[in-house]
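Our consortium's second objective concerns turning raw sequence data into structural hypotheses that experimental partners can test. To show how far this objective has progressed, the report includes one record in full. It was chosen at random from the queue rather than selected for favorable results. The single chain below, 259 residues long, was entered without modification.
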Amino acid sequence: VEVATAWAAGESAELDPLWPPGYPAIVAFVLRCGGTLSWVCGLQALALPGAGIARGRLAREACAAPPVAALAAALLVLDPEVAAFARLYRPEALHLALLCSGLALAIRAVRHEGGRGEWLRLVVLGALLGLAIALKSLLLPLAPWLVLAVSVARRSAPEGPAGASRWRLRPARGLLVALPLVAVLTPVLLFGRAASGAWTLGGSARFNLWVGLTDRSPRSLAEDRTWEEYLRYRDGGATFAERQAVLTGRLRALVQARG
């Protein structure tokens, strides 16, 4: 929120490269348009049922029965831990709405042959994936596999010229997903390079791994050391690359000590 408020005012503010800039950029955009932080919570409150609807659609595309799809949607929206993210200043609700919508489009593209508006759906799929990753980069490794699946995982093509033509269209299908994905993430990469000197979309997985492996309590918020470990992480180096290298060394030492 502090970073977004500064950006909205046209001031510079450091965003740690552990996190992608998509969420503070959205908050800053809302504030710059005359909105308030309560508008951001309202947007997230709308995104949560949107994520539930998208998850239900995802289940239907995966051939689940309607009652099962409805249950999948309801469990996401009614889960108190997930719902809590909608009222906090966190990107999860928006991320889930974009990601579940993208996955539903991906399964539809894999399972169905052609169809009206297919190419537009592929472009939208790429854009949705890019926006989801710009908000929360954890599932970045999933993106190339989705592009590959859309490109090659098709129903068996007929023999003859029609089948050969359909095979030639497969790389085009992958490009229709990959190009908007790259177009959305390129500014994020350029921002990371300018802000931290590293080509990164945000990478908190290694830090989370360290905090999880060194946790001292089986209860999630008991003896919470995350802020303490974050300050220690920041002291590990002057740049993102140096801090990540120090963290990698600590993780290797931990594995060597514990197995």
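The partners drew two points from this record. The two ends are 40 Å apart (CA to CA). The CA atoms of residues 212 and 226 lie 9 Å apart. Both points have been shared with the crystallography group to help prioritize constructs.
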